[in-house]
Design brief:
By secondary structure, the chain is an alpha+beta fold. It contains four helices and five strands, in the order βαββαββαα. It folds into two domains: 97 residues, Alpha-Beta Plaits (2-Layer Sandwich); 33 residues, no CATH class. Strands 4-1-3-2-5 form a five-stranded mixed beta sheet. The radius of gyration is 16 Å and the shape is globular.
Length: 133
């Protein structure tokens, strides 16, 4: 188990990085959080298996490659035992807060995109297969 603190600075707001990072983290079994920092950049703390973290970092570099990025850095830190991956609101004096409504909205939009990609018929079949008995 490893943990990385990833800092990205540049023109990032409004590009969907936080929500996309959450989807990728869920798919790879990575835990931690993503949030804007005081300097306007994004901080991602990600912990998980080394192989999954490498895939996450490779995806992240690919996702942001066409953006105006002034810095991309990461530091290995001590794992903190996160139980899930969360999107935090902007930092404030009291510390970060979790934006659960944003996370729920992001997941709904994600499934809507999947439905559009697969087509309604295939999506309904997929939905029935994953429904508990």
């Amino acid at each position: 188990m490893k943990c990385f603190e990833i800092t990205i600075t540049g023109e990032l707001r409004g590009r969907g990085l936080r929500g996309s990072a959450m989807y990728m983290a869920f798919s790879l079994g990575i835990r931690g959080f993503v949030e804007y920092n005081h300097a306007g950049g994004i901080v991602i703390e990600a912990e998980g298996d080394e192989e999954h973290l490498e895939k996450f970092m490779a995806w992240l570099r690919t996702f942001i490659q066409s953006w105006k990025i002034s810095d991309f850095s990461f530091v290995e830190t001590t794992p903190k035992g996160y139980s899930s991956f969360e999107i935090h609101n902007n930092c404030n004096a009291e510390g970060p807060t979790v934006n659960k409504s944003y996370a729920a909205k992001s997941l709904i939009l994600f499934w809507m995109r999947i439905r559009r990609m697969l087509g309604a018929d295939k999506y309904q079949i997929l939905q029935r297969k994953n429904r508990p008995a």
